[in-house]
Design a protein that fits this description.
This protein is of the alpha/beta class. It is 44% helix and 22% strand. Helix 7 (127-138) packs parallel to helix 8 and helix 10 packs across helix 12.
Amino acid sequence: MTIAFAAGDERRALMLRVLEHDSFSVSELSNLFGMAQPALSHHLKILREAGLLAVRREANSTYYRRQNSSPSPLVLAVFEALDRQPLTVVMHKKIDQLHIERGRQVERFFANNADALRSQQKLISETTVYAQSLRELWRGTATSDAQALEVGPGDGEILSLLAEDFGHATAIDQAEAMLAPVHAAVRGFKNVSLLHREFTRFRTRTRFAAVVAAMVLHHLPAPRQFFTQAARLLADHGRLLIAELERHEHAWVRDACGDLWLGFDSHELDHWAGSAGLVSGPRQFLAQKNGFSIQILTYIKEQA
């Protein structure tokens, strides 16, 4: 199947433009395009056979995204040409609504399973395993007048370290139930703020020296948007620090921990970070129990 034939069709070209923004399942794409699944699957097959799409299995679901792993110069040229034509306001609203629905799914899980979630997560990794590694990476930006932001503060252990090292530390979580135990963990700190907000819709004039997300991305409705928002909130030379599961096949975490995604390949995260204008920095990879591996990644915002 030639690239020209695959991308030359108006409907498939629109699919490629939409898939630049996120990974979507067949049912999600069917809703976005108002197209029956058999017809949609036919178009996806053409795009996949032309090398324009990557396929990702998430338990019993198949997700499609654009091929960002070492695409050929021709494929890159096709993507760049397609992206010069922005999506319509209507399509953006459809994508936003889909992300909202994903987020509500996670919020419902956290609201009903907050206590059980913490015990389940211990089957994967304890916060202490990666907390000090993150601290070593942010210390280059930590000063008494700098501010740090943690997305999804979990048990509050990392937030406490941020409060010790920075002038002010803010934590943000979209699920209010997940913030309850954090209050107790940081009770002794006067320089900590807790916000019940959805991260990608958080607006502030503050620019943070460090943004930290530990075991958070696999819960997010739109991981790529996370990087765009993090880059927007970082100060010049600020660091985005991520502790995240590497790609795995343990589908049980979707039901036990509310995970939307079964980890990520580092090159996928690098692509999203690069698209947001962030530069890769130091990284570590840690083997964990029960077959999981954790990647600790640094991304730096260069001076605008």
